[in-house]
């Protein structure tokens, strides 16, 4: 719209010049008028199509491509001369025009980086893209997630088609990220390519990643163990942290919602010689218990979370890279009975789930000062959880150390070789029998060393063909040697067509107590049927990208078909006994198969549409007691789901975003003879937002979340008896129901408004 | 003298097919041609992923007037802002500045004054001085206007 705006001005300017030509004597005859002319420049360069006008009488012209403008027939007097152009801060000054006077002046406009990024008809950093790699990697920038602002990665990631943040507990709101219907434990979360959010920390660690530290997010749907090792079975979410070198000097983002949620993100850059440091702080606070569904329990978990982030980047010779970052997260959250206070923590009278989390991370990268490109990456994190689920305590500590050395080598024109070694060490201890010796007398923290080596070659064997071959070897003390091969192929017949085919494998060394939060809640007892074997996955993936350029529109279609086969998938059985979660090796297999389509359309007028739809069929085949294979659908995996983002820009820096995601029926964990339906209904969570950009890097945004006010009809089972004290009551509880928090398919938060402000100051 | 004559011959041989083709010329060609026959330069900066750049190309394709202007009055060059190849421009070599898996070409960064937005139109005079810079897609008529006012 900005463009039409400037175009309108251009028309006005042409009209004015036509008028001037038609009445050439008008100016000279009336000697009571003067002229203002001059150049509009920025950093010494001319600015084309800048608007120059007088605020008093709205008379205006647009500059030509040399930056020149001329205002004729200006009546004598004092005026406010204003100038504006897309990508520049507006300019204003006083001018006094005398009769027959000629004023000549220069206008210097300051560039406005934040505004430039939103010039309607330019593409800046693409909010959504795919990497050049034969392996299908989707790239998302914070700009995409700002279309529906959320305080944490866990909420934001739901805007990605095929990715679903699943709340596993209605009380404590722990969540994990499901990719193509697979459970969260199969999704590997990386920070700067390193396994920093794993095992224990996935339970509450995901909500502790503020969007303010994110430069971009890379999503791989399907396994990627050939590069990343254990846990990369179902999909990968790689969070790339901001680089201080190109971060704004000062940035801030503050918003609050009508539910009383407050979120503050602030960052500041410091330059010290060859080093650039980024200091960031993120604070999320929600302290107003609400019970709109009237079950006596909090609808949204009370949270107070602070995260402090500091990253340093160093300028080195020959663009060599070096950075080091540290982060600290503290969180206090509780959910449960509305009457709960800290005094009831761990008691069996008023139910509450209270969790304190402390977390320290250190992330570093160093390129060796040699001719070859050899990178050393290292990370360490300590995660401490102090929690009570009702009266059940869960105290756990985890240390993860990781280091990796890799060599990135271009061999001739055709081969790009990546080879390296890695070592990961996990130390885990909790207060459960899982970390006790067999006789139960000694505490034995679980120690998992995992050395590995990998090699990958990206081979451009013909002009339009690229092949990626990868192999990784890991050694685990329980499982022995683990091999993870990968082959991927990319064919680009022309600029508008790309075909990718990929075969990959994944594996996971199991530590079940930390990976499924369901195992932690006090309402179920965990039963391990027998010794668990490692899990493996095999995936085939076919992706086709079609670009359709048109005169005034551009459409990008991205279609993917996927098939993943999981052998020895370890599953939690929620159905056999409502008091237990039974873990067992799967005699049989699990399958996740389906297809997705993403459409990205841009037009010559300021409308952008991004929409995605996923169909998936996720099931497992397991032997029943009689040894007969039985097929069952995966819990929390809807067959149909989709997302959409519609953005429209208006003049004067206004923008509108409409976002949403919808889900078809998904199977839910129910109890025998449950009155709650086994399948969820279709539902849509839609959000609308209006943003307004101001000069000097300010931006205000506000809108409505969950516009249609969709809240699930059923949630908790027997919230009035959370300690199961009155279960054996054939009169009042004939079906023998027990307290259960896992029936969840949509957040319990209904419609709410939000308002926020952003500020970015560059140099 | 003879050398200059030969360069002229080569120049004519080089330009003849290109005039017919009316597409952008290469940087190597630009470097050689500016030495013998200076003309103002128009640079279109684009990226592979930029959808508005593709729309911009369509706008050029459908306007013979724009094509004619670009090929007759200017040396028209297209610069991929994410090209990994070093480019010799006005006797200076510019190369790719990597940043993680992405990055920007030094020449694009210089011409666009470090603000990445695509497509970008840069007009330089025969002494390589920037005469105009516009970031954003220009529809054919507006592009024609833009190029004409520079002349």
UniProtKB/TrEMBL annotation, chain A:
Protein name per the record: Outer membrane receptor for ferrienterochelin and colicins
Keyword flag Metal-binding: no
Gene Ontology biological-process entries: siderophore transmembrane transport
Keywords: Cell outer membrane, Membrane, Receptor, Signal, TonB box, Transmembrane, Transmembrane beta strand, Transport
Compartments, as annotated in UniProt: Cell outer membrane
TonB-dependent receptor-like beta-barrel domain span: 282-707
Any one GO cellular component localisation term in the record: cell outer membrane
Membrane-related topology note: Multi-pass membrane protein
Species: Chitinophaga filiformis
Location of the TonB-dependent receptor plug domain: 131-236
Single GO MF annotation: siderophore uptake transmembrane transporter activity
Signal peptide: 1-22
Protein family according to the UniProt entry: Belongs to the TonB-dependent receptor family.
Automatic annotation (TrEMBL), chain B:
The entry's keywords: Signal
Superkingdom in the source lineage: Bacteria
InterPro entries the record matches: Thioredoxin-like_sf (IPR036249)
Pfam family of the protein (one): Thioredoxin_7
Signal peptide: 1-20
Matches recorded under SUPFAM superfamilies: Thioredoxin-like
Protein name (record): Thioredoxin-like
């Amino acid at each position: 719209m900005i463009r039409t705006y400037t175009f309108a001005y251009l028309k006005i300017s042409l009209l004015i010049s036509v008028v001037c030509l038609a009445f050439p004597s008008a100016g000279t005859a009336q000697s009571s008028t003067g002229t203002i002319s001059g150049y509009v420049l920025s950093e010494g360069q001319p600015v084309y199509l800048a608007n120059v006008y007088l605020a008093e009488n709205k008379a205006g012209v647009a500059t030509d491509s040399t930056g020149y403008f001329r205002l004729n027939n200006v009546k004598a007097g004092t005026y406010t001369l204003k100038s504006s152009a897309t990508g520049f801060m507006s300019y204003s000054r006083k001018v006094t025009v005398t009769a027959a006077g000629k004023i000549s002046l220069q206008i210097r406009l300051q560039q406005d980086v934040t505004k430039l990024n939103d010039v309607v008809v330019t593409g800046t950093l693409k909010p959504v893209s795919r990497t050049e790699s034969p392996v299908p990697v989707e790239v998302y920038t914070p700009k995409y997630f700002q279309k529906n602002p959320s305080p944490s990665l866990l909420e934001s990631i739901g805007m990605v088609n095929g990715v679903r943040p699943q709340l596993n507990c209605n009380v404590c709101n722990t969540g994990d990220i499901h990719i193509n219907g697979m459970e969260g434990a199969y999704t590997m979360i990386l920070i700067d390519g390193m396994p920093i959010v794993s095992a224990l920390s996935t339970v509450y660690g995901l909500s502790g990643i503020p969007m303010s530290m994110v430069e971009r997010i890379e999503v791989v749907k399907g396994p990627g163990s050939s590069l990343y090792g254990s846990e990369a079975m179902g999909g990968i979410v790689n969070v790339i942290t901001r680089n201080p070198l190109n971060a704004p000097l000062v940035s801030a983002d503050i918003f609050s919602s009508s539910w009383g949620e407050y979120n503050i993100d602030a960052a500041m850059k410091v330059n010290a010689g060859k080093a650039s440091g980024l200091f960031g702080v993120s604070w999320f606070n929600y302290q107003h218990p609400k019970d709109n569904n009237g079950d006596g329990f909090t609808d949204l978990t009370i949270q107070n979370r602070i995260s402090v982030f500091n990253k340093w980047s160093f300028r080195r010779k020959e663009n060599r890279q070096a950075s080091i970052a540290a982060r600290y997260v503290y969180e206090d959250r509780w959910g449960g009975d509305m009457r709960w206070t800290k005094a009831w923590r761990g008691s069996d009278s008023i139910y509450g789930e209270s969790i304190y989390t402390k977390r320290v991370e250190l992330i570093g990268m160093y390129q060796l000062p040699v001719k070859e490109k050899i990178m050393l990456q290292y990370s360490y994190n300590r995660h401490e959880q102090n929690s009570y689920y009702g009266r059940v305590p869960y105290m756990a500590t985890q240390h993860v150390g990781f280091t990796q050395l890799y060599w990135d080598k271009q061999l001739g024109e055709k081969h790009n070789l990546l080879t390296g070694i890695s070592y990961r060490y996990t130390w885990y201890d909790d207060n459960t029998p899982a970390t006790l010796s067999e006789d139960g007398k000694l505490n034995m923290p679980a120690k998992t060393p995992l050395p590995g080596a990998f090699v990958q070659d990206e081979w451009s064997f013909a002009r339009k063909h690229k092949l990626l071959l990868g192999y990784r070897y890991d050694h685990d003390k329980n499982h022995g040697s683990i091999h993870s091969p990968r082959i991927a192929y990319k064919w680009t017949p022309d600029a508008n067509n790309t075909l990718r085919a990929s075969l990959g494998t994944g594996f996971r060394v199991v530590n079940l107590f930390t990976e499924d939060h369901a195992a932690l809640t006090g309402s179920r007892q965990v039963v391990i049927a027998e010794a668990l074997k490692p899990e493996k996955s095999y995936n085939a993936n076919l992706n086709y990208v079609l670009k359709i350029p048109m005169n005034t529109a551009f459409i990008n279609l991205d279609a993917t078909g996927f098939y993943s086969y999981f052998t020895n998938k370890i599953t939690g059985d929620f159905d056999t006994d409502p008091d237990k979660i039974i873990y067992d090796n799967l005699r049989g297999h699990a399958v996740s198969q389906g297809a997705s389509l993403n459409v990205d359309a841009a037009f010559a007028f300021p409308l952008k549409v991004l929409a995605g739809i996923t169909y998936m069929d996720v099931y497992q085949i397991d032997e029943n007691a009689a040894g007969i294979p039985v097929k069952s659908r995966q819990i929390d995996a809807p067959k149909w789901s989709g997302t959409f983002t519609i953005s429209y820009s208006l003049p004067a820096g206004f923008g509108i975003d409409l976002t949403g995601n919808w889900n078809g029926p998904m199977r839910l964990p129910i109890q025998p003879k449950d009155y709650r339906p086994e399948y969820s209904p279709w539902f849509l969570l839609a959000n609308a937002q209006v943003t307004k950009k101001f000069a000097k890097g300010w931006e205000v945004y506000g809108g409505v979340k969950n516009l249609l006010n969709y809240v699930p009809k059923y949630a908790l089972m027997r919230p009035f008896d959370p300690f199961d004290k009155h279960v054996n009551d054939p009169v009042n509880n004939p079906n023998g129901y027990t307290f259960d928090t896992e029936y969840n398919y949509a957040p319990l938060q209904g419609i709410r408004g939000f308002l926020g402000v952003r500020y970015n100051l560059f140099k | 003298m003879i050398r200059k004559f030969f360069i002229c011959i080569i120049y004519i041989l080089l330009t003849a097919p290109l005039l017919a083709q009316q597409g952008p010329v290469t940087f190597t060609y630009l470097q050689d041609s500016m030495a013998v026959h200076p003309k103002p330069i128009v640079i279109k900066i684009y990226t592979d992923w930029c959808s508005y750049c593709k729309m911009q190309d369509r706008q050029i394709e459908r306007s013979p007037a724009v094509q004619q202007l670009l090929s007759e009055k200017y040396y028209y060059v297209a610069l991929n802002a994410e090209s990994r190849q070093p480019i010799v421009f006005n006797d200076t070599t510019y190369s790719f500045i990597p940043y993680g898996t992405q990055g920007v070409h030094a020449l694009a960064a210089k011409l666009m004054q470090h603000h990445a937005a695509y497509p970008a139109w840069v007009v330089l005079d025969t002494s390589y001085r920037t005469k105009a810079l516009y970031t954003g897609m220009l529809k054919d008529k507006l592009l024609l206007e833009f190029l004409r006012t520079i002349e």
